[in-house]
Design goal:
The protein is built from 15 helices and 16 strands. By secondary structure, the protein is α/β, with parallel strands linked by helices. A hairpin with a 4-residue loop joins strand 7 and strand 8. The radius of gyration is 23 Å and the shape is globular. This is Nitrilotriacetate monooxygenase component A.
Length: 449
């Protein structure tokens, strides 16, 4: 039986506490040289794609900007288009919100990126409903939480309709004029639904992938259904077996139920890594990094998002607070994605872990908030990745480092060659598009109605 190939994505740390901005080797979070170095390193390691997260508003605590966050994130499309000029094979994936952007703009920008990059564009579809983020946009916080996936699905369907409004043979060459001409109905579209009533002609001919790759992150049952029915890849929040394997089976089953093949969707958790000369050396480095990342103040703020209470009076080196969350109060933390489905169950688990392991507030945050880091010697990390993928915990990993922009270099130099020796990472790019490299089926041909 052949071994699964490991998909590798690279992300550049941004607006969160994981980025070691204080490190003497740390570079700028917004300089093009940082993005370029990370992307070139990923391509040197034969990664599948480079990924950018998105922050649409500066995060706040009790009305004030976090003073431990990294401030600043340039426009995603500008960065990815620039990287298209300095890479040849690497996919370029951007997180763009489906709530605050219009289908025509989204379709045109991603189709343009796909043309500029020769078929390497990917869209990570995210949603938002909170008034805090919406305050930066014309629509404000209008969207009811129950409707966010309704809008996301209509947005994605509309974008795909625009991509498909150009047929594969709608551009023809006129020999006399030397110009390229469009056939009569090329680009025509008319879309009407609960969210949109738009019509016109799309300006960008069909791109190399036909449809750029679609990524999505969904943990709730509704989010999983949306991703399973629509995404080419989904970001998994689970970095440890067996819960990761349970998520893998669940999403693949939902894809089949939606009329797709299980192979039509790839499962990709994010992970950090720490390498050492020995297992003990790597573990010590990892412990030191975690304690630098999660200061006492950071630990309190991470818990405040769960409790939705001001915890500043609590000692980070003391016990977990004995109060209960207050989900009905106005949010004390604004601009940070909330990933905990049940506040009360999460607090109960944190207390149980703290008591069982004799951990302080800060220590339990460090223990529980990290998602399956890869720690060990290069050989051990290669083994961890290969074992995880072959046991269907995922189809690969999206890797990032606490050190920007040079952190990925060590992984590419020391771990990738070992994965290549195992036969699970390519030694050269053979596909011409991101779809090819991810092992995804070609986009369906446009259907004229």
């Amino acid at each position: 039986m052949s071994r699964k190939q490991v998909i590798l994505g690279a992300y550049l740390g941004g607006v969160n506490h994981h980025t070691a901005w204080w490190h003497p080797e740390a570079g700028s979070q917004i300089a093009f040289s940082s993005f370029e170095h990370t992307a070139r390193t990923a391509e040197r390691g034969f990664f599948d794609f480079f990924f950018l997260a998105e922050g649409l508003a500066l995060r706040e605590r009790a009305g004030e900007v976090f003073d431990q966050d990294i401030i600043g994130r340039p426009d995603t499309f500008t960065v990815l288009a620039s990287l298209a000029a300095v890479t040849e094979h690497l996919g370029l994936a951007g997180t763009i919100n489906a709530t605050f952007n219009e289908p025509y703009e989204l379709a045109r920008k991603f189709a343009s990126l796909d043309h500029l990059s020769g078929g390497r564009a990917a869209w990570n579809v995210v949603t938002s409903f909170d008034a805090f983020t919406g305050g930066n946009f014309r629509r404000g916080g209008f969207l009811d939480p129950a409707d966010r996936y309704v809008r996301a699905e209509e947005t994605l369907n509309a974008v795909r309709a625009l991509w498909d409004s150009w047929g594969v043979d709608d551009v023809v060459a006129d020999k006399e004029s030397g110009r390229f001409l469009a056939r009569g109905n090329a680009g025509e579209f008319a879309i009407s639904g609960a969210q949109f009533d738009i019509h016109g002609r799309f300006t960008v001919p069909r791109s190399p992938q036909g449809r750029p790759v679609v990524l999505q992150a969904g943990v709730s049952p509704q989010g999983r259904d949306f991703a399973a029915a629509n995404a080419d890849a989904i970001f998994s929040p689970f970095g440890k077996l067996p819960e990761a394997a349970d998520f893998y089976r669940d999403v693949k089953a939902r894809a089949v139920k939606a009329g797709r093949s299980a192979d039509d969707i790839k499962i990709l958790p994010s992970a950090s890594f720490v390498l050492g000369d020995s297992a003990a050396d790597a573990a010590e480095k990892h412990r030191a990094i975690l304690h630098e990342q999660v200061t006492g103040q950071t630990a309190l703020i991470l818990l405040e998002q769960i409790y939705n209470r001001d915890l500043s009076a609590y000692d980070p080196d003391g016990p977990v607070p004995d109060i209960e969350p207050d989900p009905e109060a106005p949010p004390i933390i604004q601009g940070r994605a909330f990933i905990h489905q049940d506040r009360f169950a999460t607090v109960k688990r944190l207390r149980e872990v703290s008591e069982a392991k004799k951990l302080s507030l800060r220590e339990v945050v460090i223990d529980q908030f990290e998602r399956g880091p890869l720690v060990g010697t290069p050989a051990q990390v290669a083994e961890q990745i290969d074992t995880f993928v072959q046991h269907n915990g995922s189809d690969g990993f999206i890797l990032g480092s606490h050190l920007v922009p040079t952190g990925l270099d060590e992984f590419v130099d020391k771990v990738v060659p070992l994965l290549q020796d195992r036969g699970v990472v390519r030694t050269e790019y053979t596909g011409t598009t991101l779809r090819d490299n991810l092992g995804l089926a070609a986009a369906p041909a446009p259907v004229r109605v």
